[in-house]
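Input record (Table S2, row 305):
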Amino acid sequence: MNSPPAPPADSLVTVDTCLACRSRDVRTHAPSGRTGFVILQCRDCGLRFLRDRLSLDAVVSDYDMDADAYAAFTDITRPEVIDSSHAEVLERIDQLVGPKPGRSLFDVGAGDGGFLAMARERGFAPAGNELSSGAIEMAWERNKVELHKGDLATLDAGLHDAVTLWCVLAHVPDGDVLLEDVKKVLKPGGLMFLQTPRWSKMDGMGMVAHDATKGRASRITDRRMAMHHMSLHTVKSMRATLERLGWEVVSIEPHVRYSLTTASYLHSLGISEKAAERASRPVNALLDRDLFFRNVLDVYARIPG
Ligand SMILES: [Zn+2]
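Output record (zinc ion complex):
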């Protein structure tokens, strides 16, 4: 796989303190030999984050895929994993929100609307937004879900009982801004669910190779930390972020969840297509038994009522 071209310098924002706990005790790793990206590590809460981060404007223009590009992206995902994760999370949201008439759920970056369609079946009025016009078209065609185009800041305040963010936090340069916007669209006492990539044992192994070679062996760190994942959280860094912003944490739990097909995922780590196909079988067996690296955090939190 070719390295993506480095983004132009004027689309980057540079940080030097921990974005989660605000500590200044931050370790700087050698730049990636392939991309030049620099990963920082907070010694207090364990957050790993890119030093040079895409600005929000650059993120927004990157995500505006057309319908064909968006369809190509969804073709390499594992629908059975996505559906079972969606069902599991909705079950928990259902319990935490409780049976309220006219309860509503807003999904940030709602993609093809599959999650919202499932939420509608469980009695939530569905709402959501997308930056990608391709996704907005697809959500309507596949799931009859109407999405708002644009970011949360443009929406009416205090309307929703639950807000969900599937892998959105890691994509934004400043998570605080996003989490404050989520607060505004929630009703008092409202519930947020978010899933975000986690600093896992695999990342730790990748970083050992990266450090030992001063950034030359960077396949794993490049795959896991790039402009599409600008932060990898730990339970501690997630808790620090939420508490600093005034959220009441309900739970923060690591999970195994690979939404790409295993072969596509292994291929993206730099393994040849043929070898990735062969290696995907034992990895699938581990995934089926929930034994692969716990690569994401599931987070539930409330705003005070
Ligand atoms: Zn920290």
